[in-house]
Amino acid sequence: AEAAAELLRLYRRDPDGWRGCRSTGEVAVSWRPSAEFAGNLYKGEGILPASPQNVWECIKPVAGGLRTKWDQNVKDFEVIEAISDTVSICRTTTPSACMRIISPREFVDVVVMKQYEDGTMLSAATNVEHPLCPPQPNFVRGFNYPCGCFCIPVPG
């Protein structure tokens, strides 16, 4: 989890190589080739008219959190094992998609949540195997490379 968090911090600090691919008035999505796997990294950025704490409440990876209420791509989120106050093993499920052509997925990740001195909040995760969470019937087991969300306060 700590390695995933550090990798995300490095991505955030390195502006080189990102190419814009989609943009609306609220969100800009960029991509760049990954150094870890044969594919691309993606990042979405936007400014929300809310306090960082209110935004964090919507995105933080906790059981019973708000993410399953607003994110149609997250059907359920559960904590399999709490390692500490900030690190846990979690299972996220997604619904089927494209008229059920794409099967529901499940992801088992080690997740860390951090808050930095400047007020930035981070959740970072990466794939892990866990004996309390074997693959479940009717789900395809997905694999997450290091991924996560930053909630960064902006002046004003």
From TrEMBL:
Keywords: Lipid transport, Lipid-binding, Transport. GO terms for molecular function: cholesterol binding; cholesterol transfer activity. Pfam families: START (PF01852). One of its GO terms (biological process) is cholesterol import. Residues 1-156 form the START domain. PANTHER family: PROTEIN CBG07384 (PTHR46374), STAR-RELATED LIPID TRANSFER PROTEIN 5 (PTHR46374:SF3). May be involved in the intracellular transport of sterols or other lipids. May bind cholesterol or other sterols. This is STAR5 protein. It comes from Rhodinocichla rosea.
